[in-house]
Amino acid sequence: MESEDERKLTRLVRELVGGKPVSEVNPKIIPQVIDAMEQHKQTAIANGQVERVRKLQSIMAELSKLDRKRKSIGKHKAKSEKSTSRSIDTTTEDSHKEITPAVVESVLADIMDGFPLDVAENYLLPSLIQAARDHVNQELSTGNYKEAQRYEDVGNTLVALSNERMVEMKKNEKREALVYQFTQAEEALRKENESLRQALEDHDERSKAAEDALNAEEEVTLNDHDAVTNGDLPVEKLKFSSALLNLRETEKFLVLSRRFEEAAGIKAEADQKEIEEVKAIHEKYLKQRKIQRNKLVESFDQRRKCLIEKNARLRQRIEQDHQAERSALERAVENWRQRIIEFDKNLEAQNIPIVETKKTPRAFVTQRTPPLSAHRTPRPATQTRAIRPGTSRLAKLAVSRK
């Protein structure tokens, strides 16, 4: 299968053979054109087309001379440089604008010699059909019926080929429409999945931030609680028993009564009792603080649990909100996929090649068409005449002369 550049070079060679001036060839692609013409020359030699070989050799000589002249000048400007493919495209676009009779005659001569019509030359079909009809009339006027029949057959084949390629183009345009809908559905599904992913990601970030804030609050609260617990015993917690208070009152009375020995004994007893009571009060205080700490931990655990459950519900709601849209888009993608598969099966059943095109292509189905003889309709075995009455101008003329 030829590449796009090769097809454009083939067309340019035909235009040159048809009379296009070599001076109009972009100097950048002269070596490529010469190589392409060499291949055409070898084909013409193999087919015994002497005149075509001479024509090709003459054009190649002119191109070589033009190429040597270009190299001798040696002026290269960056602004004027373009890629080879773009140069070929420019030449092709110009040839579309003006279809010279010489080019049409050159291509028609190739077709008469058995060369296939390139898909890239479909724009020539109307001109080729008209040229074939003109040749039929010309040959009829000179009585050259055999040559007229050849042009008549080629003209009919070109008409059939034009209709066939038009059908192929319409079917491929329909397929492109299906592919476009499929890609649109796929893109919509991709965006929906991306939207869901982003929504879940944002939600997870917010959830983590909320949990981190709660953990930080818990840590600060527990640290403050532990600092108080591990500090000095609060004065308000020192509530002594009435027995200890009575001993202290007795101690004061004995001191005031100047009974110091008795006061010393009472004081020692009161001090020992105070130590015991302070220890008991402190132990009770620590137990209370531990209970308070456990309640704080339970409170934060409960808040954390509620937060996690809330975030889980919100996450599930986000997924549910997107699920309906995602399901619809998934069904649409699969539906368009199946329609394309069925359409391709129908094309294969009709023996129509499938073209994988870009965004807005306008190419026909085949890259290269088979020789025109492949498009001719076989005649019934019972038919012996070369011309079927009533099917061509040549036949009508023959009947009228009878």
Automatic annotation (TrEMBL):
Which residue windows does the record flag with biased composition (Basic residues)? Answer: 70-79
Q: Where is this region: Disordered?
A: 70-94, 363-402
Which keywords does the record carry?
A: Coiled coil
Look up the coiled coil feature and give its residue ranges.
182-220, 268-346
Its protein name is: Uncharacterized protein
Q: Which organism is it from?
A: Trichomonas vaginalis (strain ATCC PRA-98 / G3)
